[in-house]
Specification:
By secondary structure, chain A is of the alpha+beta class. Chain A has 16 helices and 13 strands. In chain B, a hairpin with a 7-residue loop joins strand 1 and strand 2. The chains are: A alpha+beta, B alpha+beta.
């Protein structure tokens, strides 16, 4: 067990997160959604309480708890009025150690989760992101949805959940952070309440490997009726925290699409008004994740907007950024960094993320220095080495009859086009 | 208490101190041109939040010109007399700012969260755009395009957004809460530069603004900067608000609508109290008994035990004038909105018949205390509370007075509020069907 305590007497609140290093990427094939479902089951019965009893107990303490999964980990988090901290930590510790996993409750959870997947189809931006990841990481665990699919959820059994819990929820796999109105000793004492009933277990090895870049430009069009816009999500592979040029790529991405005045926003919205938002991001996980950019142009502007974005990416990779752009991005990252650490909760979660994502030792402590060391040559070298304007996926959500042909025509060197229904799992 | 430097006497005055929780008070100052300045010193981190709240929102618009307050919020990030297009944001980003703005029915506000060294920059930039914004045709035309795209994203292609718009236009027939803050599409298309200039002159002036500054600041230094940058600005002749109180609703209104979604939805709205009404806290607690969290009555009846819904929510609008008590439920596949309504009606009848239990009340009070404190962890969170309450009810201390009021509520208070507001004749019901089902709409 690894523990971080972040004291702050600013408010009479205490918070915590406890993470275990086994997430959606580690779910067995055809059991996708297992990690998340198992975590959600923790608050549906255990420690002698049924689901309603748990919720009532948490509410009475003036507390909130959440249990969820990401690609690489599962987490239980909570916040509570300081005067009730002992009771909440005690309760969560008992739920972690002795969940009921009632079969009837698991069946209900599966039905609820399946309905949520259907309802999520109303979110066009989410559909675009899903289509991008499904294609970009095809054949790799990162292509999955942590929530699973309607089919994989239906296959889950109580034995799956019990087995997952026994292997995952152990002291050896736990990272804990406690923050807020505690001192170090009190934080450690509370953390022990979370872990008191857990077996020692065996540390997990992560079998997930880096994804392989797909070759060529690929358009995935998600057909949805009655759209007035096209949601465009364009991506290729990005970075890992231990890449030598990781910080250079962070700076370069910030200059290209990481702020309101960055190149992408300026071209798409500032000069043309084509989309309310335009941004790019570098996702971060234990293995190489995605670099992606997003816009939402109106149907009529979508082909030109797509062509512009592809051109901007091509020029970014081939011609690079200017020294002025790089220095500006560095200034922004250095000076805004204070907002990454201005509350105890943020400082605590930063430490937890570093552990869960297996970031190199001293990642956060050396962050500002690493950013300061980036110059225009390093930034442009990182862009050339890591991003590609040729090997990328273009995910578009729109109405096929109105948009597909024009988007296809707007994409030079398009290698493949796939049309998917909006309810594709 | 007053920290007004002697050199500034006569140009800015200390008005009063507002208690704000158990810590330092919020100090209120006023410039001679009417600009209000609310300051809370908080040295927890070397940062500050600088917010400018204008007492103008979509309620101040008129039919045919809806969405102007929101469009104007966008235009405020454009060119000024001293700053070419883009420079305003560039300077803020270079200093490490988090910045944005928001518009709603009663107000518009702008914020910058900055490292403490940048106080001079914040006062320089915000005073510049309050008084010397440049409004020209190309910028207005481009920003109209951006807003139309925002509307497509948030309303036209979004089921919840479009249903919310339908709800408010169905309930309100007189009051300015009738139209959406983002505006009707044809109104956005029709705005001229002259419309924008007139709006700017009327509402963007020191006597219609409140500065809220929270964080690691030196109060005398802040006041000196504010007087230097804002002191010479002129007050405006603010237009009289053409308020049209909404008449009582005497019979249920029901609308059926088809949307491109796979699941039915139910939206029900009762007429609700103004934020300043003493029943607002009581109805909010009633709502939390019904909808707040997984232990709530409706979450159990609709989502967990009933397995009829994916999600259910309730919200008492936090508007200056009487608003709505909104309820929305998303059905599971193959469940009808009528089935949701049947369960909802049964639960509402129950809470009108007998008050919540002492245990339910205690749970909600504890949750509200947690929620109130959680929102105060950052300087921006504190500044938002101070600005919001100051603009809507006139007193930033109301943020904590409300918590005190909640603590004093009894089950009888909740029963009274439920009976006062949950009256079937004053409600509006929207039934959302998936497109492709029978699309005959009925009212």
């Amino acid at each position: 067990m690894r523990l971080h305590v972040e004291p702050s007497s600013a408010l009479p609140l205490v918070g915590f997160s406890i993470a275990f290093g086994q997430g959606g990427a580690h779910d067995p094939v055809e059991r996708e959604g297992l990690a998340r479902a198992s975590m959600r089951m923790l608050r549906r019965g255990g420690a002698g309480l049924d689901g309603k009893g748990i919720e009532d107990a948490v509410d009475r303490l003036g507390a909130e708890i959440g249990a969820d999964a990401s690609m690489s980990a599962v987490t239980v988090s909570g916040e509570v009025l300081a005067r009730n901290a002992s009771a909440l930590f005690e309760l969560v510790g008992r739920l972690l150690a002795s969940p009921a996993f009632e079969p009837a409750e698991l069946s209900k959870l599966v039905r609820e989760s399946q309905a949520e997947l259907v309802e999520a189809r109303d979110n066009d931006r989410g559909l675009a992101s899903r289509a991008l990841r499904r294609t970009l990481f095809h054949g790799h665990p990162y292509a999955r949805r942590v929530a699973g699919s309607v089919t994989s959820l239906a296959a889950l059994t109580r034995a799956d959940v019990v087995g997952w819990h026994a292997a995952t929820i152990t002291r050896a796999n736990a990272w804990v952070t406690v923050y807020g109105d505690v001192d170090d000793a009190r934080g450690r004492e509370l953390a022990q309440r979370l872990l008191a009933g857990l077996p020692e277990g065996v540390p997990h090895q992560d079998p997930v490997c880096d994804p392989v870049r797909r070759v060529g430009r690929e358009l995935v069009f998600v057909d949805k009726p009655e759209r007035t816009q096209v949601q465009l999500s364009i991506g290729t592979l990005g970075t890992r925290g231990d890449d030598g040029d990781h910080h250079a790529l962070i700076v370069a991405n910030t200059a290209f699409g990481g702020t309101f005045t960055a190149r992408l926003m300026n071209e798409v919205r500032g000069k043309r008004g084509w989309s309310y938002g335009a941004s790019s991001r570098l996702s971060l996980d234990r293995r190489r994740e995605a670099w992606s950019m997003w816009t939402a142009p109106g149907e009529a502007d979508a082909p030109a907007c797509l062509a512009l974005q592809l051109d901007l990416l091509e020029r970014l990779v081939n011609d690079g950024l200017t020294a002025e752009e790089v220095e500006f991005a560095k200034s922004y990252l250095a000076r805004s960094h204070v907002f990454e650490v201005d509350t105890a909760e943020k400082r605590a979660h930063r430490e937890l993320d570093a552990a869960v994502l297996a970031l190199p030792d001293g990642y956060h402590a050396s962050y500002l220095q690493r950013v300061a060391e980036v110059d225009v040559d390093r930034a442009n070298a990182a862009l050339r080495a890591r991003l590609s304007a040729d090997d990328l996926v273009i995910a578009a959500v729109g109405t096929r009859a109105a948009s597909l042909d024009a988007l296809t025509a707007a994409t030079p060197r398009l290698a493949r086009t796939t049309v998917a229904p909006h309810d594709l799992e | 208490m007053s920290e007004v430097p002697a050199a500034l006497e006569g140009r800015v005055c200390f008005v009063e101190a507002h208690p704000f929780g158990g810590g330092a008070p919020v100090q209120r100052f006023r410039l001679s041109n009417g600009l209000e300045v609310l300051v809370l010193v908080d040295r927890e981190a070397p940062v500050f939040s600088y917010q400018t709240w204008f007492a103008v929102g979509s309620r101040h618009e008129r039919p045919g010109k809806t969405g102007l307050a929101h469009l104007f919020e966008h235009l405020m990030f454009n060119e000024t007399e001293k700053l070419p297009y883009g420079v305003f944001d560039r300077k803020l980003e270079e200093a490490g700012a988090e910045s944005n703005a928001a518009t709603w029915v009663d107000w518009t506000y702008y914020y910058e969260n900055l490292p403490r060294e940048a106080l001079g920059l914040a006062t320089e930039l915000e005073s510049e755009r309050m008084a010397r914004l440049v409004l020209q045709e190309p910028q207005v035309a481009r920003e109209k395009e951006v807003v139309m795209n925002e509307r497509r994203m948030r309303v036209d292609d979004d089921v919840d957004g479009s249903v919310s718009e339908l709800l408010y236009s169905t309930v309100f027939r007189e009051h300015g809460y009738s139209w959406p803050t983002i505006g009707w599409m044809q109104d956005i298309e029709g705005f001229t530069t002259a419309d924008c200039a007139e709006f700017y002159r009327a509402y963007y002036a020191p006597n219609n603004a409140t500065l809220v500054v929270v964080g690691d600041v030196d109060v005398p230094a802040l006041l000196s900067l504010v007087v230097e940058r804002y002191g010479a600005l002129s007050a405006s002749a603010r237009p009289r608000e053409d308020v049209r109180p909404e008449p009582p609703q005497t019979e249920e209104r029901r609308v059926e609508v088809h949307k491109p979604t796979e699941t039915e939805r139910l939206v029900v709205a009762y007429r609700g109290p103004a934020l300043g009404d003493q029943d607002h806290a009581a109805l909010s607690v009633v709502n939390d008994v019904l909808f707040a969290g997984r232990g709530s009555r409706l979450y159990g009846a609709l989502v967990q035990r009933g397995e009829l819904a994916i999600d259910c929510r309730g919200w008492v609008s936090t508007f200056r004038d009487p608003g709505l008590y909104e309820i929305s439920v998303t059905a599971r596949p193959d469940v009808t909105a009528e089935a949701l309504l049947e369960v909802l009606d049964r639960e509402l009848a129950e809470i009108v018949a007998s008050p919540p239990t002492d245990d339910e009340l205690a749970r909600v009070k504890a949750k509200m205390e947690l929620g109130a404190l959680s929102g105060l962890q950052t300087v921006a969170g504190k500044a938002e509370q101070i600005g919001f309450w100051s603009v809507v009810t006139g007193d930033p201390s109301d943020a904590f007075r409300r918590l005190s009021a909640v603590r004093r509520l009894t089950p009888d208070d909740l029963l009274r509020a439920a009976r006062r507001y949950l009256t079937p004749s004053s409600r509006t019901v929207i039934l959302v069907r998936p497109s492709g089902d029978d699309e005959a709409e009925a009212e």
